[in-house]
Amino acid sequence: QVQLVESGGGLTQAGGSLRLSCGASGRTFSSYAMGWFRQAPGKEREFVAAITWSGGRTAYADSVKGRFTISRDIAKNTVFLQMNSLTPEDTAVYYCPARHGVRFSSPAPTIGYDYWGQGTQVTVSS
């Protein structure tokens, strides 16, 4: 069973940075993609970033391009989201999902994730 545990959320001021981590266990993730999604109060959950586990291909939402960076540490089965230049609009619960069946040459998917963590709260004050 896939288990995903997010950490690293917290409170920061506008312009600040946070680094989220997602520890994954329960599978060999070579054919997986890992993502980050977020959900703000009263809004639908939205895609933020994704990375393919084997090929390292990435994808980003337009709203975070140039500010957020997704990466993974294969040896530690961990995915990171480095968030810089944060704004109050980035305030949300951030989730780390996993999607299986992603080939080495596949682009990083923005939909179709199968397993989800519990989320970590990110709050950016103005």
Fold and architecture overview:
This protein is 0% helix and 50% strand. The protein is mainly beta and 126 residues long. A hairpin with a 6-residue loop joins β4 and β5 (46-52). The mean pLDDT is 96.
The percent range for strand residues is: over 45%
Instruction: Give the SSE string.
Output: EEEEEEEEEEEE
Structural class: mainly beta
Instruction: Specify the helix fraction band.
Output: under 10%
- How far is the N terminus from the C terminus? 40 Å
Characteristics:
mainly beta, 4-stranded antiparallel β-sheet, globular
Would you summarize the structure shown here?
The chain is mostly beta strands and 126 residues long. Helix content is 0%, strand content 50%.
Write the layout of secondary structure elements.
Blueprint: E1 3-7, E2 10-13, E3 18-25, E4 32-39, E5 46-52, E6 58-60, E7 68-73, E8 78-83, E9 92-95, E10 97-100, E11 115-116, E12 120-125
Parallel strand pairs: 2-12
Antiparallel strand pairs: 1-3, 3-8, 4-5, 4-9, 4-10, 5-6, 7-8, 9-12, 10-11
